[in-house]
Amino acid sequence: MADNQMTRVWDRVMAKKIDNLTSTSLEDKVKSVWLPVLYTTFTTAHGFTVEAIRDINPQNEADFLVVKHYQGDVEHPLIVVDCKRSEFENRDAEWEKAKDRLSDYITAMEKQTCICGAQGCTSHVRGLICIGKKVGFYSWIPTAQTDGNLEPEYKRHFHIVQDQMKIQLILDNYRSQAVGTSEMYTSLLSAP
User: Fold this and answer.
1) Less CB within 10 Å around the terminal CB: N or C of the chain?
2) Is the pTM above the cut of 0.70?
3) Rounded CA gap, 117 and 120, in Å?
């Protein structure tokens, strides 16, 4: 996607939705901010879908957004997004709970058989935790000894307004890695 098109989408999202996100906003309102960003970054023209998925574990109430990449008839989960209400934005314990919930979901995905016939297809899955106006980026690290680990990719959470360009670069890099063109983003993301 052209940078100016993505910037216009961000501007519209900021104007209409971000300003309405308050400290009392619930999960659906947070999710409504991220959906347009995901839809415009991960387009069907490039083989992506963005789906709202009910948690595999019936004991969890969380719903997730899942970005999938299709290569022919084979679907690969790329990103799992968990959106949480704004009031939890600055509570470390809530970020940990969300990380545990996301890890449980990806573990359950891994145990399912993918359309390609392989178990899970989660080796390159990323996790996003969106709490209010902040987002954390995580990588799923499959391990032989355990189900896997969800590790932070960055030492901090990013603010959707203040860190707009960095968030956009990270998501563009995820998209490019899925379609095999990530080299140009690597140097941009390593900048402070």
Assistant:
1) C
2) yes
3) 9
Strands 158-159 and 134-141: antiparallel
> Beta-strand (E) ranges in the chain?
48-54, 63-71, 74-84, 126-131, 134-141, 149-152, 158-159
Tokens of 94: 């809530």
Q: Structure tokens of 11? A: 């501007």
Which residue is associated with the tokens 């519209």? Answer: 12
Rounded to 5 degrees, φ, ψ at 149 are: -130, 140
**Alpha helix (H) ranges present in 42-163?**
92-111
Residue linked to tokens 């058989």: 113
Which burial class, exposed, middle or buried, applies to 109 when counting CB atoms under 10 A from its CB (0-12, 13-18, 19+)?
buried
| Residues forming a β-bridge with 49 | 68
Q: What does each of the 192 residues of the chain score in pLDDT, given as a tens digit?
A: 455 665 666 666 566 777 788 888 888 888 888 888 898 899 998 889 998 876 555 555 557 888 988 877 777 888 999 999 899 999 999 999 999 988 888 887 776 645 444 544 556 789 999 999 999 999 988 765 556 688 899 999 999 889 988 999 999 999 988 887 544 444 445 555
Virtual CA dihedral for 26, 132, 5, 65, nearest 10 degrees?
Answer: -60
Cα–Cα distance for residue pair 171/41, rounded to 1 Å: 7
Q: How many CA atoms lie within 13 A of 67 on its CB side?
A: 28
